[in-house]
Specification:
By secondary structure, the chain is an alpha/beta fold. The chain is built from 13 helices and twelve strands. The strands form two sheets. Strands 4, 5, 6, 7, 8, 9, 10, 11 and 12 form a nine-stranded mixed sheet that branches. A three-stranded antiparallel sheet has the order 1-2-3. Helix 8 links the parallel strand 7 and strand 8. Helix 2 runs antiparallel to helix 3 and helix 7 packs parallel to helix 8. The longest helix has 21 residues. It starts with a strand and ends with a helix. 50% of the residues are buried.
């Protein structure tokens, strides 16, 4: 079996209303998908997290290196591409491009052997995964002290047992909103907060101390990803677990975070940190350091499927016990017209539980009509 073609698909869709996290407003959702064809008719799909046109340029530049190669040699091809890009791209869009390629290769490999990817990664430890609802962004109008608690309560009504709140809008507002959301969802629902690295360590610690009383599951990206010392300072100052890593890449990048004990919870994005090949290695490192692993997921159904395949094989956070604590799937609930439309059978939750796809490869089928509908203008 040989690779015969590598294609990129840049997709975009306008939102009905914009929403904001701590550092920017969104009025459009984009996606960059990778399609790899083989000489025996198998097609694999991957997705790149990050700026769509930039990651597409990376994939298109790498494509000639892949033509004629055996797609089942996932680790060998990963090492080849990484080595050829090492002088110019150990992090960022280069690795994001490699991630989408790698996921597509695993999809092909699973289809070739007629098994889901998790079977090839070592076998499933679980067939379903608990999901937490990511939402609770800011809107252009309305009072966040009113609409955010209402939105959070809606997720609980859907069956989610955990929700994540966006913070980073000022310490006083963040503290007030966190309190309001906690009151709305009650004491038994897990509540996490995510600052998207909008604070320095001084501000993050101050906020953390104000919200500790609300039983926060984790404080995500409290400081910029480059500030490893700041992560350690926040972690030392608070009882809230500190999470991060969606802006880190490869096992080499996570090595420093793990050795320095900067995180309680690692959050590599499978579509950014190096794909399934590399994220399995990061997960193994994470277990060796006693650090929990909950992948960041912010993409289409391909990103969700790839993350579920990895989540299926991850060990529980706790050592072997009768009541293990398993890793969770991030389930984006914000508006994303492309997310489910590109799949013939969307991946949905049932009372906060998501089934791991068990079909060959990633276990999904792509709707090409949707690809055409959302194709970005050249």
């Amino acid at each position: 079996m040989k690779i015969t073609n590598v294609r990129t698909h840049i997709l975009e869709a306008k939102l009905s209303q914009p929403f904001a996290y701590s550092r920017a407003w969104y009025d459009t959702r984009t996606a960059m998908l990778v399609e790899i064809e083989t000489d025996d008719g198998l097609v694999g799909w991957g997705e790149c997290y990050g700026p769509a046109r930039m990651t597409a340029a990376v994939v298109e530049s790498v494509a000639p290196w892949l033509i004629g190669e055996d797609p089942s040699r996932t680790d060998v091809l990963w090492q080849m591409v990484y080595a050829r890009l090492r002088d110019h791209g150990q992090k960022g869009v280069m690795i994001q491009g490699l991630s989408g390629i790698d996921i597509a290769l695993w999809d092909i490999k699973g289809k070739n052997f007629g098994v889901p990817v998790h079977q090839l990664l070592g076998g499933a430890a679980r067939k379903e995964v608990g999901a937490y609802a990511t939402g609770l962004y800011r809107r252009k109008s309305g009072d966040p002290l009113k609409y955010l608690p209402e939105e959070a309560a809606g997720y609980v009504a859907e069956g989610f047992r955990a929700v994540k709140l966006k913070v980073g809008f000022g310490i006083a507002e963040d503290a007030a909103v966190t309190r309001a959301v906690r009151e709305a969802i009650g004491p038994d629902i897990a509540l996490m907060v995510d600052a998207n690295h909008a604070y320095d360590a001084v501000a993050a610690i101050r906020l953390g101390r104000l919200i500790e009383r609300h039983d926060i599951g984790w404080f995500e990206e409290p400081v910029p990803p480059e500030d490893v010392a700041g992560y350690r300072a926040v972690k030392s100052a608070l009882t809230i677990p500190v999470a991060g890593g969606e802006c880190e890449f490869t096992r080499f990048g996570f090595r420093e975070l793990f050795v320095s004990h900067a995180l309680d919870i690692a959050q590599p994005d499978t579509c950014a940190a190096g794909g399934l090949t590399e994220c399995k290695k990061i997960a193994d490192m994470s277990e060796a350091f006693g650090i929990r692993y909950n992948p960041h997921v912010w993409g289409t159904g391909i990103a969700i499927a790839a993350s579920l395949q990895l989540l299926a094989v991850l060990p529980s956070h706790t050592p072997t016990s009768l009541s293990p604590i398993g890793p969770m799937l991030e389930f984006d609930r914000t508006e994303h017209p492309i997310r489910h439309a590109i799949l013939k059978e969307p991946i949905e939750h049932e009372k906060g539980i998501v089934q791991v796809p068990d079909g060959p490869g990633l276990g999904i089928e792509i709707d090409r009509e949707a690809l055409a509908r959302f194709a970005a203008n050249a």
